[in-house]
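dumping this here so i dont lose it
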């Protein structure tokens, strides 16, 4: 077993195969290691996150190594539930899959139906299940180039796994069919149809989909009306950690410090939802007297009078609030004293834009009603931090790994010395960077494994992607380095046109388990 660094509170435990990985996962669930907060299983790794104040270091690695089952120990028997999934075969890659397997298309379909597929783990997107079977012929490569759009319900194969895309998304798996059965439904308990341990049998027929009754929508309440906004706004809070078993990332505010300062400025608890505003301009109108605060990149004005950044301000009914596009930074956070009335999803009001989990984005015409939660006295927070502008060079500290050893020392130096341009294609999912490509000496595929917020993934193009809060839970491209947690807020404020240089305190090295004293 190898232990690969990800961050101060995260590492990967890498094993030989899926059975060893699941056997260790079972052992850690049966005999938990103190200080471990969450475990994300994948094809050959466990991503292990620790509780605050607990380091992912050699001591923790030693405790996990001590729980490793004896060689050959099979995973525990998984759940007994079996789901029958209707599929219409004829996906775009069915002919290519048949050629890879040395079968006819009809024989591929027969083999796919005769296999019993079992969910090993979930990831990539909520409800996306990685299913395995005993038929080794299904050990197939990903497509040479991923598609930018795969329809929801697509049944796909890659790397000994079968999966069903729960929503429209990019992806690189081989498509063989389509199902209309929803993989992810928040009206279901649990929302994910396919969960770890569940068995699945595929049958060649169309699904019968029955429309649900329309739910009457409540009339808009009085509150803060959105007159106009250049980009959709989203509610954010501290996120929904601990949902990795269903393939759900934590999400949450990109600049968590700014979100918490906004709440504190109006006397709210720090975890109440705030409105995350990207760039601007935004125009709002108060239907009621209320107290607000804006932190982060933007500056509010009322009746032409500018409000100091980060300061609480009161408005009367009929007052209009304007937030102009910022000169520096990307995102602003608007808090309302007493909070907004917004329904949580899976314990959080955060909107995950990749997974489509959480409240709908806020656009023109919306009315944001007060939550009327308890609030306390406030203390002035002081000056808001300086934020980067287009053209600025921003240095971000990283920890090399977990897959830095997939790249030559020359490529690591290139990664650390390059000034990477932030492109306009960046979003809450991640910052897409542009520069001289990072290359590898081989085209080996990485089995899917957990990814942390701040992971810097290197796809086939060689142009890095810096994952932010709405990133996929698992990924199949090597992560050369991971942003240190203290730099995440700053990363969420870097605008297109700025440049990034990554810095590392130490060379890459696997974590060595400490010998017991």
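and the seq i came up w/
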């Amino acid at each position: 077993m190898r232990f690969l660094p990800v961050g101060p509170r995260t590492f990967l435990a890498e094993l030989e195969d899926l059975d060893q990985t699941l056997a260790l996962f079972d052992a850690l669930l049966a005999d938990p290691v103190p200080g471990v907060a969450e475990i994300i299983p994948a094809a050959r790794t466990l991503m292990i996150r620790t509780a605050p104040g607990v380091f992912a270091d050699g001591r923790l690695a030693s405790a996990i190594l001590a729980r490793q089952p004896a060689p050959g120990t099979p995973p525990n028997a998984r759940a007994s539930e079996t789901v029958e999934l209707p599929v219409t075969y004829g996906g775009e890659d069915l002919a290519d899959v048949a050629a890879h397997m040395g079968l006819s298309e009809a024989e591929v379909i027969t083999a796919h139906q005769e296999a019993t597929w079992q969910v090993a783990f979930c990831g990539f997107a909520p409800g996306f299940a990685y299913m395995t079977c005993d038929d080794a012929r299904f050990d197939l490569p990903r497509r040479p180039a991923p598609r930018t759009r795969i329809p929801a319900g697509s049944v796909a194969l890659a790397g000994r796994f079968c999966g069903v895309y729960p929503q429209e998304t990019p992806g690189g798996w081989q498509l063989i069919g389509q199902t209309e059965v929803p993989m992810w439904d928040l009206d279901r308990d649990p929302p994910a149809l396919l969960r770890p341990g569940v068995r699945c049998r595929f049958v060649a027929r169309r699904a019968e989909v029955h429309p649900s009754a329309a739910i009457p929508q409540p009339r808009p309440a009085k509150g803060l009306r959105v007159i106009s906004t250049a980009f959709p706004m989203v509610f954010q809070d501290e996120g929904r950690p601990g949902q990795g078993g269903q393939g759900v990332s934590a999400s949450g505010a990109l600049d968590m410090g700014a979100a918490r300062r906004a709440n504190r400025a109006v006397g709210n608890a720090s975890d109440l939802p705030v409105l995350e505003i990207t760039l601007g301009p935004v125009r709002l109108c108060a239907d009621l007297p209320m107290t607000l605060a804006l932190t982060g990149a933007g500056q509010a004005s009322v009746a032409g009078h500018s409000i100091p950044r980060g300061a609480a301000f009161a408005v009367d009914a009929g007052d209009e609030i304007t937030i102009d596009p910022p000169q520096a930074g990307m995102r602003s956070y608007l808090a309302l004293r007493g909070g907004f009335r917004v329904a949580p999803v899976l314990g959080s009001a955060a909107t995950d834009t990749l997974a489509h989990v959480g409240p709908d984005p806020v656009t023109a015409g919306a009315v944001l009603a007060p939550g009327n939660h308890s609030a306390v006295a406030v203390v002035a927070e002081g000056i808001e931090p300086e934020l980067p502008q287009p053209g600025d060079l921003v240095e971000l500290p990283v920890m090399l790994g977990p897959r830095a050893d997939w790249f030559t020392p020359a490529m690591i130096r290139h990664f650390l010395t390059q000034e990477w341009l932030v492109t306009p294609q960046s979003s809450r999912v991640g910052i897409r960077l542009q520069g001289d490509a990072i290359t590898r000496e081989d085209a080996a595929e990485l089995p899917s494994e957990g990814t942390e917020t701040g992971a810097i993934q290197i796809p086939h193009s060689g142009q890095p992607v810096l994952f932010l809060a709405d990133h996929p839970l698992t990924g199949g491209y090597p992560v050369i380095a991971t942003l240190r947690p203290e730099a995440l807020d700053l990363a969420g404020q870097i605008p297109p046109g700025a440049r990034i240089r990554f810095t590392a305190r130490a060379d890459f090295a696997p974590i060595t388990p400490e010998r017991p004293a």
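The chain has seven helices and 33 strands.
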